[in-house]
Design brief:
The chain has about 375 residues and is an alpha/beta fold. The chain has helices spanning about 15-30, 40-45, 50-55, 65-75, 90-95, 105-115, 140-150, 175-185, 200-205, 335-345, 350-355; strands at about 10-15, 35-40, 60, 80, 100-105, 125, 160, 195, 210-215, 240-255, 260, 265, 270-275, 295, 300-305, 310-315, 325-330, 360-365. The chain binds pyridoxal-5'-phosphate.
Length: about 375
C-alpha cells in the first residue's frame, strides 16, 4: 500500500485491515484459547492507542505499569495484563484501581502482595521459570505460592500460571516441549488458568495453546521464526507497517566516485544515485550493508554506501522513470521487514519497535 502524500517526510503506514486479518490467524491456530494481544512498546512501534481500538480481544498485555496507565488514560476498558508485574505496594494499589491483572515473578512481589491491604480483589498470574532462566519462580516456589495465594482473600481464584518460551522460534528445539511439561508437573497447576504461547508457540507448537495465548509479533504481520523459509507468507500473515520515505534528490556519478560518509561505496560504472529521506534518526538501521533492498515504484533496488541520520542512498540506475517525490518502501508490503532484519543482523521486532517518534504513523482503517 503506497500512499502518495504531499510532504517530504518519512511515514509509517499502519494497515488496520491487516491487523484484523492477523488476529484471525491467531484465532485459527488457537481456536480454544483466549487472547492477550501483546501491545507493549507502543504496540511494537505501531501506535498503541489506535492498535488497541482495532483489535477486539479478551485482553491486552503490556510489560510495565506505565503502559497500562497510558491505555487507561486513552479510555481503553479491556482487561490488561502487566507481564513484568509491579515493584511497590503503591503500584499494586494503582494496578488494582486500573483493573489490571498482575504477574508475580519474584518472591518479593509475592510477599508484598500477601501483606498488602486491598479493598478489591486482584487477578494474579504466577510466572514460572521453566527453562528460559530470565524471569519467574522455580517450580518449587511456584507450588508454594499457588497454595499460599489461593488462601489470600484479595487474590481472585483461580490463579493464573504463566511461563515464557525461550526457543519456540526454533522448530527443531525440544526445549519448548520440556517447558510445557515442567509447567504441568507443578502441584496445584491443574487448578490454575494457564498461559504459555507467544507467536512462535501459537504458530509452531500446538501444545502451547493453553487457556490464554500471548501473540505479539504475528499480530503485526511478522514471522517469529528464525528460519528464513518460515516467512510471514507461509502463515498468511500480512505486514501491518509499511515504512516509506520520499526520493529527495537524484544525481549522476561517474565510475570511481565515492558515495556518502567514508566513501565506503565506490561506483564501478556511471551510476544514477537516489537519495531517500530517511535514516537512522528515524529508526532505519545504520549498519545494513550495500545491496540491502529498497523498493521504488515497485522495483527492488540496492542501497549503496552508509546510512546517514536523515537519509540514505540507493542505486537508481535501473529505474530511469524515478522522480523526486516518488515514495520508496523500506519495509512492509512486498518487502518483508524480516528480510531487512536479516541484512541488519537483527530481528524484525527491533526494526518496528525502533521507528522513532520523528516518523508519523498514518493509520489506514
Ligand atoms: C513480548 C512477549 C510476548 C509476545 O511475544 P511475540 O514473540 O512477540 O509473540 C509474550 N509473552 C511475554 C512474556 C512477552 O514478554
Amino acid at each position: 500500500m503506497i500512499h502518495t502524500i504531499n510532504n517530504f517526510n518519512p511515514i509509517a503506514i499502519i494497515n488496520h485491515a491487516a491487523l484484523r486479518h492477523n488476529l484471525d490467524i491467531v484465532k485459527k491456530f488457537a481456536p480454544n484459547s483466549r487472547i492477550w494481544a501483546v501491545v507493549k512498546a507502543n504496540a511494537y512501534g505501531h501506535g498503541v492507542e489506535e492498535v488497541t481500538r482495532t483489535l477486539a480481544t479478551e485482553g491486552f498485555a503490556v510489560a510495565r505499569l506505565e503502559e497500562a496507565k497510558n491505555l487507561r488514560r486513552a479510555g481503553n476498558l479491556t482487561p490488561i495484563l502487566i507481564m513484568g508485574g509491579v515493584y511497590s505496594a503503591n503500584d499494586i494499589i494503582t494496578a488494582v484501581d486500573l483493573n489490571c491483572e498482575l504477574v508475580i515473578h519474584t518472591q518479593e512481589q509475592a510477599q508484598m502482595l500477601l501483606r498488602i491491604n486491598l479493598t478489591r480483589s486482584i487477578k494474579i498470574w504466577i510466572k514460572v521459570n521453566t527453562g528460559m532462566n530470565r524471569l519467574g519462580l522455580t517450580l518449587e516456589q511456584a507450588a508454594y505460592w499457588i497454595t499460599t495465594l489461593a488462601k489470600c482473600q484479595h487474590v481472585q481464584s483461580p490463579l493464573g500460571l504463566i511461563t515464557h518460551l525461550a526457543n519456540a522460534d526454533d522448530l527443531a528445539d525440544n526445549l519448548t516441549n520440556l517447558q510445557c511439561q515442567r509447567l504441568r508437573t507443578i502441584p496445584g497447576s491443574e487448578t490454575c488458568i494457564i498461559s504459555i504461547g507467544n507467536s512462535a508457540g501459537i504458530l509452531g507448537w500446538q501444545q502451547t495453546n493453553a487457556d490464554w495465548v500471548r501473540p505479539g509479533i504475528m499480530l503485526y504481520g511478522i514471522s517469529p521464526f528464525n528460519d528464513a523459509s518460515a516467512t510471514n507468507k507461509k502463515y498468511s500473515l500480512k505486514p501491518v507497517m509499511t515504512l516509506q520515505a520520499p526520493l529527495i534528490a537524484i544525481h549522476h556519478c561517474q565510475s570511481g566516485d565515492a558515495i556518502g560518509y567514508g566513501g565506503s561505496y565506490v561506483c564501478s560504472r556511471p551510476t544514477t544515485v537516489g537519495v531517500i529521506g530517511i535514516g537512522y534518526g528515524d529508526g532505519y538501521p545504520r549498519h545494513v550493508p550495500t545491496g540491502t533492498p529498497v523498493l521504488i515504484n515497485g522495483e527492488r533496488i540496492p542501497l549503496i554506501g552508509r546510512v546517514s541520520m536523515d537519509m540514505l542512498t540507493v542505486d537508481l540506475t535501473n529505474v530511469p522513470t524515478a522522480r523526486i517525490g516518488d515514495q520508496a518502501v523500506l519495509w512492509g508490503d512486498n518487502l518483508p521487514a524480516e528480510e531487512i532484519a536479516t541484512a541488519a543482523n537483527t530481528i524484525a521486532y527491533q526494526l518496528v519497535t525502533g521507528v522513532t517518534s520523528r516518523v508519523q504513523r498514518l493509520h489506514v482503517r
